[in-house]
What we know:
mainly alpha, 1 helix
Amino acid sequence: MTNKLNIGILLPTxxxxxxxxxx
Length: 23
């Protein structure tokens, strides 16, 4: 597994969850 995939998916996903429904 590549860290780039994890960072590219987990990072933005956590950001969206923290921001909530805001775009």
